[in-house]
Design brief:
By secondary structure, this protein is mostly helical. It folds into two domains: about 90 residues; about 60 residues. It contains three helices and no strands. Helix 2 runs antiparallel to helix 3. The longest helix has about 80 residues. The radius of gyration is 42 Å and the shape is rod-shaped. About 0% of the residues are buried.
């Protein structure tokens, strides 16, 4: 009988340890899957952040290219305008004198108009009108006198 009880105890002990091993194995499997899921989530978050950074970089590059194209177009327009002015032939002295005085007189008139508007405009409209007039007067002054020195002819 002692042999049967020893056999039963060994079987029960083996069963308990086998069951405990199975439970520990299952728990370890769950922990491993959670770790794998956490690693997978971290990888996806990293890839998502990387994709967002790449999209921002592409948007920034596209914006830079658009700005470059806009600037290049503005310079081409300026060059064409200056070429057109350079192609104007000399005329009578009085015509050249009137032509030479046109820009300074228009500039003074524009600044005078801006001053009159500033001092006579209503308070609520003053800011918008003054900003627009200041822009026009500054642009005209810098454009008309910015690069208008006498040019030496290359021979």
């Amino acid at each position: 009988m002692a042999d049967i009880i020893g056999l039963a105890a060994s079987a029960a002990g083996g069963g308990v340890f086998g069951l405990a091993g199975t439970v520990i194995g299952r728990i370890a499997g769950v922990v491993e899957r959670r770790q794998e899921n956490a690693q997978e989530r971290a990888r996806w978050m990293h890839e998502t952040a990387l994709a967002e950074l790449q999209m921002r970089a592409q948007a920034s590059a596209a914006e830079g290219q658009a700005h470059l194209a806009e600037t290049a177009g503005a310079w081409r327009g300026l060059a064409a305008s200056m070429e057109a002015e350079a192609s104007i032939e000399s005329s009578y002295r009085w015509v050249n004198a009137v032509r030479a005085l046109t820009r300074p007189l228009l500039t003074l008139l524009l600044w005078l108009i801006m001053s009159l508007v500033y001092f006579n405009a209503a308070a609520d409209a003053k800011a918008s009108i003054v900003e627009t007039a200041t822009f026009a007067a500054t642009a005209a002054t810098l454009w008309w006198f910015g690069d208008r020195g006498n040019r030496r002819e290359v021979r």
